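Private note to self, pasted from the team thread so I don't lose it. Backbone tokens:
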């Protein structure tokens, strides 16, 4: 056995680093290595295959002399290990007989060595990787892609997902592949920072059957020649910034099985009226601009379709009844469109597991006969439609159903008892915001797997004993609010200890439930009840202080039991009770505090020291006397301060009208205060309500930011769009103070963060610092707010999503603030079409996460003749002095504020900047200007601030 020593050397020399499971087997001298797991041999006993994938090997392999001595090796698989950002060893080139090399997701980083290009027998090469924030990427710079593949003429499969190939433009990477890889069948370059366009030379790769270019900034139309790949089975181009009209001929490629064009907002197209492709299995068009089109009946001809995802495409019309012919359908997502009419029958799709028709305008009832055959359904989401009638028990009792979401419809009957409830696997049941009536079925409380139960905003009646809920041992979220229920919590029995969210607003509670044993409760809402006792001091220690959201408003509470120590609450709402005495100092972690409409008589002098994070504070409609404490000036994050309708006297601290830069609403009327209005107020101030001045109706602030100060009653379509947007967003229910208070039962023009005009149309939206994450791409409701002219999404957590191009739909925008919101990548060209913008803020806290390359700065601002404020701090602009200077001066005649810190700008500062006569603030610090300060920036030009 000539290669046993090499194998043993590999195992033994790497034992300090290799923690794979069978290393000890490698050392068993009595065993034949042709029988070892992961080893393949030819008839002569030569090792020709080595599979060490997913073996938790750590460190690197550069010292593995035994490995590099396996001269007959034809296949090497080291995928899914933990090589801790080491480089791919150049000595792999010693393995000259390799045909299959798989190093995917193994933790390699740095430059791919040029020696790989010498492995001329390779048929399959997989170097795919996944980079994480702070980790070193795997890249192809020197050598570049052309050099890597120049000798790999036998290659049939190339996988470089996640490898940084940004040095190659469209014509370069396409020509590199087409000139060197004539036999290529599989091309996978997902998330490689490639740029477009897709060059016509790619058409020379006649054997291509799989093309995966997802998550690259191609910014190009899909070329017609792709319909000429006669063997094409999979075409994936999601999140590529595709433009133009998608060629319908590609739908008709007879071999095509997978087509994924999702998340290309500017890609237009339509599903052909005639579809005869008998191979297509997966069709994904979500979040494209296949808008205004109906879905043709011919989709029912695609007999092998198993997955259809058409969410957020603005399809209208009815859902074709021909879809009932799709017997192999497993996954169907038609959410966030404008489909109307009734839900068609899917009873023939017996393999259907996932059904999402939410956020449409579907109407009519749900047939009770369609569901019994769908025994494999796991997920059903029909939220936010116009469905009426009853909810069939056959749907509720499906044997595999785990999530059922029917909220925000118009179901208007009694919910019948569920058959076989005790054997159900249902984990989420959302029936909220309907018109359901009668008692809550007792069988709901027999759903042993239930984790989330949402029954709020209906017409349920009767009495619910909290003890009856004890059987739901897995329940984490319960919302029975806003029904006609009476919840009996008189028992001293402790409530479910694993509950995290408990909402019992407007449930006729007379006592606070026994929640002393709670371990995980962080959101508690007992508002609008009849609780008349003191607030027990044990409530502040619930869940060992992890309670973050507490709403006890609109009760009959008399006081706070002493001693008390408030926990780390983010939201504390005690308004509309009968609380007396001194205002209790709020938790230092609180973001939202409402003590209004009580009988408090004094404010602690040091209250400001507790308001480090507070954004909203209302002490209105109490019996407060004395002066406004000077410590209020320490509340530097306040946006709303309401001290109205008290008996306060003295002078208003100057900081409240000029010092707190974030303060947008100040209400002091109905007091005995005195003072004068300062000449300059905070740039954030929207509304001042003072006791000696009823209203100051500012139309703009110091730099022209639009101010909204009047509103009418909310129009129903505007409310629907806002709720649709809310339901499409991912946010922290504890920290998202404004979003959590939006509900269908109140006028949307009164919602926090929403401003309306006199006609009840939404014209302002401020969702800054709402802990929204994941992105806004699917927020169809947001992009339909056609009257919106102020949008603030600053300081959120959009998890490296790109700025959505659909913002261009909001053609009336004059104020757009996306600063520090977590967006990354190229700023979309569509922003340049927002010609009414007065203020644009895309600044970041982290350098170069956003780029202005294609389009560049000149293209972005070319239509912004009204712009007065431009903030692009830490955006990678990488422009020379004459370029960025002339781009600004030629397009922005009214510019007053220019902030381009850390933008990779180079000098000199071009003289054309002198044409911007209105400039009052210039920030160009931390750029490589390497230039004298030009004389035209002299203070004689009235520049208030130059940096």
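Design output:
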């Amino acid at each position: 056995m000539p290669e046993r020593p090499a194998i043993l050397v590999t195992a033994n020399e790497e034992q300090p680093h290799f923690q794979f499971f069978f290393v000890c087997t490698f050392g068993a001298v009595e065993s034949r290595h042709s029988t070892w797991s992961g080893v393949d041999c030819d008839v002569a006993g030569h090792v020709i295959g080595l599979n060490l994938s997913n073996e938790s090997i750590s460190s690197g392999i550069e010292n593995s002399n035994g490995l590099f001595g396996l001269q007959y090796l034809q296949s090497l698989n080291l995928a899914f290990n933990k090589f801790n950002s080491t480089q791919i060893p150049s000595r792999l080139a010693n393995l000259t007989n390799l045909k299959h090399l798989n190093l995917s997701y193994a933790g390699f980083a740095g430059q791919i060595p040029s020696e790989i290009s010498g492995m001329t027998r390779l048929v399959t090469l997989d170097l795919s990787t996944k980079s994480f924030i702070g980790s070193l990427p795997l890249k192809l710079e020197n050598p570049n892609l052309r050099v890597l593949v120049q000798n790999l003429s036998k290659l049939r499969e190339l996988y470089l997902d996640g490898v940084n190939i940004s040095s190659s433009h469209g014509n370069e990477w396409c020509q590199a592949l087409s000139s060197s890889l004539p036999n290529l069948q599989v091309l996978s370059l997902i998330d490689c920072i490639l740029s477009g366009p897709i060059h016509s030379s790619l058409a020379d790769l006649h054997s291509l059957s799989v093309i995966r270019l997802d998550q690259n900034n191609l910014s190009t139309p899909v070329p017609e020649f792709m319909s000429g790949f006669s063997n094409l089975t999979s075409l994936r181009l999601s999140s590529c910034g595709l433009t133009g009209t998608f060629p319908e001929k590609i739908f008709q490629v007879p071999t095509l099985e997978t087509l994924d064009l999702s998340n290309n907002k500017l890609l237009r197209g339509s599903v052909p009226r005639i579809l005869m492709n008998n191979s297509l299995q997966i069709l994904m068009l979500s979040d494209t601009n296949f808008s205004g089109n109906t879905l043709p009946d011919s989709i029912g001809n695609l007999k092998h379709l198993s997955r259809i995802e058409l969410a957020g495409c603005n399809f209208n019309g009815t859902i074709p009844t021909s879809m009932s012919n799709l017997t192999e359908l497993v996954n169907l997502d038609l959410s966030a469109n404008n489909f109307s009419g009734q839900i068609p029958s899917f009873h023939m799709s017996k393999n259907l597991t996932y059904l999402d028709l939410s956020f449409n305008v579907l109407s009519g009832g749900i047939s009770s006969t369609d569901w019994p055959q769908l025994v494999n359904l796991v997920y059903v989401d029909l939220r936010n439609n116009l469905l009426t009638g009853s909810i069939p028990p056959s749907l509720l009792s499906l044997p595999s159903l785990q999530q059922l979401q029917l909220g925000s419809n118009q179901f208007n009957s009694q919910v019948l008892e569920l058959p076989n409830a005790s054997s159900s696997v249902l984990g989420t049941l959302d029936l909220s915001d309907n018109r359901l009536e009668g008692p809550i079925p007792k069988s709901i409380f027999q759903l042993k797997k239930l984790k989330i139960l949402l029954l709020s905003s209906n017409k349920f009646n009767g009495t619910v004993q909290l003890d009856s809920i004890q059987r739901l041992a897995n329940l984490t979220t319960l919302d029975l609010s806003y029904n006609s229920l009476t919840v009996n919590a008189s028992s001293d029995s402790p409530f479910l200890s694993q509950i995290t969210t408990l909402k019992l607003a407007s449930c006729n509670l007379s006592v606070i439930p026994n929640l002393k044993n709670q371990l995980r409760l962080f959101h508690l809402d007992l508002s609008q009840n009849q609780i008349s006792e003191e607030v027990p001091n044990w409530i502040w220690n619930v869940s060992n202080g992890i309670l973050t959201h507490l709403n006890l408003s609109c009760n009959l509470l008399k006081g706070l039991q002493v001693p008390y120590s408030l926990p780390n609450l983010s939201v504390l709402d005690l308004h509309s009770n009968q609380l007396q005495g001194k205002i209790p100092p709020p938790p230092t972690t609180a973001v939202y505090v409402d003590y209004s409409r009580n009988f408090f008589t004094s404010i602690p002098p040091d209250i400001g020291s507790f308001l480090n994070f507070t954004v909203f504070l209302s002490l209105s409609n109490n019996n407060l006397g004395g002066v406004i404490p000077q410590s209020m000036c320490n509340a530097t994050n306040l946006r709303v301060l309401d001290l109205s309708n008290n008996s306060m006297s003295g002078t208003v601290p100057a900081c409240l009208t000029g010092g707190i830069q974030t303060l947008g609403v100040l209400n002091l009327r109905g007091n005995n205060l005195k003072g004068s209005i300062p000449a300059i107020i905070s740039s954030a101030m929207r509304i001042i309500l003072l006791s000696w001045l009823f209203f100051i109706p500012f139309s703009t602030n110091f730099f022209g930011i639009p101010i909204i100060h009047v509103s009418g009653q909310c129009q129903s379509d505007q409310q629907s769009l806002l709720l649709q947007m809310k339901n499409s967003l991912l946010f922290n229910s504890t920290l998202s103070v404004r979003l959590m208070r939006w509900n269908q039962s109140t006028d949307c023009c009164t919602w926090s963060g929403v401003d309306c005009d006199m006609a009840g149309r939404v014209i302002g939206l401020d969702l800054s610092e709402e802990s929204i994450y994941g992105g806004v791409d699917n927020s169809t409701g947001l992009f339909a707010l056609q009257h919106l002219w102020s949008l603030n999404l600053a300081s959120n957590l959009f998890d490296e999503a790109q700025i959505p191009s659909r913002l261009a739909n909001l053609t009336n925008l004059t104020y757009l603030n996306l600063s520090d919101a977590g967006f990354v990548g190229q700023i979309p060209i569509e922003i340049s079409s927002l010609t009414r913008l007065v203020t644009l803020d895309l600044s970041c806290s982290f350098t170069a996460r956003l780029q202005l390359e294609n389009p560049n700065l000149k293209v972005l601002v070319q239509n912004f003749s009204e712009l007065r404020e431009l903030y692009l701090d830490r955006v990678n602009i990488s422009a020379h002095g004459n370029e960025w200077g002339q781009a600004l001066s030629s397009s922005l005649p009214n510019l007053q504020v220019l902030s381009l810190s850390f933008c990779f700008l180079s000098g000199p500062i071009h003289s054309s900047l002198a044409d911007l006569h209105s400039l009052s603030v210039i920030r160009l610090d931390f750029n490589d200007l390497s230039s004298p300060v030009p004389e035209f920036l002299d203070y004689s030009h009235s520049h208030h601030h130059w940096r």
